[in-house]
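Agenda item 2: iron/sulfur cluster complex prediction
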Amino acid sequence: MVTVREYFGNITNAVRTTYKGMKITLKYWVKEPSITVEYPDRIGGLRSEDLVSERFRGYLKVETSKCTGCLLCMRVCPIDCILIEVNRRDDRRYLDRFDIDQAKCMYCGLCVEECPSAAILFSKKYEGACYDMKELCVSHVSSPVPAARPAKKEAPE
Ligand code: SF4
Ligand code: SF4
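Presented output:
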């Protein structure tokens, strides 16, 4: 059973904690500038992607015009999230498929380091919310792209 002393103690406690909370709320409402971010809206003219650091590892992007179709990135990926198909037609090699499954990717960067033509890079894109995991498998080739010719190595002097 609650004593009279405890009863009034609880009331005093409720008033004191409410006052404390409201004091902080009023301070931020009236005096301090807003510190919350209305994600994903722009903040001061910047996009949320512009706020991440220079070396941020977001979704992978592929510059297909630089890609030679050497398949090194696909082979080095430890969890097989890259799938490339290269076929030869009319004496030229074509990239028929270049898919990266961002749902599986662990952003280790091995593919980026291994690529001799800097054709696969990290972007700053990180928003990937979707209802179906299959949507995270990004296709970087919508129609066949001629593979770039590998740069010739300069002969040692
Ligand atoms: S970052 Fe790592 S896990 Fe992701 S595709 Fe490249 S090698 Fe595979
Ligand atoms: S992205 Fe780079 S490593 Fe991958 S197939 Fe193209 S050139 Fe080779």
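Discussion summary: The helical segments are 4-30, 72-76, 110-114.
Owner for follow-up: CH.
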